Amino acid sequence: MELIFLGTGSNNPSPHRGASSLALRVSGTSNVYLFDCGEGTQIQIQRSSLRASRITKIFITHLHGDHLFGLPGFLCTLSSSVLTSPVMIYGPLGLREFIETTLRLSYSWLSFKYEIVELIPNAYDGVDENLIKTTIDKQEKSEKCRTVTMNEDGRYHLIANDDNCAVYAISIKHRVPTYGYIIIENDLPGKFDIQKLQQSGIKPGPFCSRLKAGESVTLDDGRVLSPLDYVGPSRTGRRLVILGDCCDASNIIPHAQNCDVLVHECTHDNTLREKAIEFGHSTPLMATTLAEKCNAKCLLLNHFSQRYKSKSIENKENVVKKSKKEQGGAEAGENEDEDDDDVTVDLLLEQAKQSTTKPVFIADDFFTYTIPLSK
Ligand SMILES: [Zn+2]
Ligand SMILES: [Zn+2]
């Protein structure tokens, strides 16, 4: 399993960072899940190693434009690909209206089959119940859309066993109904010990796949091989938590214990905590506090205010500024003030590391993280 961050900026795309989007390569298949689709996501996909036609499921965390404005354009581009299975699109109530309205008003048409699954807000989301009812009533009955309500355990159960994993959504606190997604991989079969087989004087053959699958095998010479002797114990599947924008994601804690990865937004630095909370966002300390409470094995930070530049971009810009100064260009003097304001994501990383000993990474655009299997 591999996470590829396509856009890691908050509010809007910029030359430095794309708007929110994150891809997950699912293990054991060529399928890719996309989480959020901010403006310009399709360009970021083209700049990455991903193939758009491999995206089979799209999860939208909330309906703010910086997580959604790239979706109609991406779907239209996807229409030029040959897709063998329907594209599933999950997100808050209102997602269907957004997709269908933008497609209709732009005279667009999708060549592939798709289904929209809308999550009905609950009392936690603070949405007027009458408004929810009216919105649902307005929904035309359609094969292309269905709705999911929250279970008694506080989770929205979205996927049972596709691609060898289950996916749940859980409400988290932002300014509008927003969800975090939990992906739980099924346990994986144990390792096949081919050396032990060879040491027993047995030549590997097609029977090995049956042995790997847990079946006993009788060889031509009458020997019976038990999988218990050649296949190790099953390995625990990975557990990923991908959060949307939030200033309080504590709802996720009981369901995210010992997760392998927690992806948490980090819009502002610790000195701007009040501003962050006012706008429904988080700081490094807020993210590490949640990571500690979940006992997450690794914390990946994304969704940075555009004022925090990536280190590599800052270096490039300094070269440009320096060369302009050397040329005595008019812009050189104007840019000197901006130099004082330059601040990079290193500040966010430093602050995060002050409050946790867990591995923490800043996910700039195209940052890729392979999630290891537990030992
Ligand atoms: Zn956002
Ligand atoms: Zn938002």
TrEMBL record:
Biased composition (Acidic residues): 333-342
GO cellular component: nucleus
UniProt GO molecular function: 3'-tRNA processing endoribonuclease activity; metal ion binding
Keywords linked to the UniProt accession: Endonuclease, Hydrolase, Metal-binding, Nuclease, tRNA processing, Zinc
Requisite cofactors: Zn(2+)
One Pfam family this sequence matches: Anti-Pycsar_Apyc1
Region called Disordered, residue ranges: 317-342
Basic and acidic residues compositional bias, start-end: 317-328
Signal peptide: none
Stored InterPro entries: RibonucZ/Hydroxyglut_hydro, RNase_Z/BN
PANTHER family per record: ZINC PHOSPHODIESTERASE ELAC PROTEIN 1 (PTHR46018)
HAMAP family reported for this sequence: RNase_Z_BN
Record NCBIfam families: PRK00055.1-3
Record text on subunit structure and interactions: Homodimer.
Protein name: Uncharacterized protein
Native source species: Adineta steineri
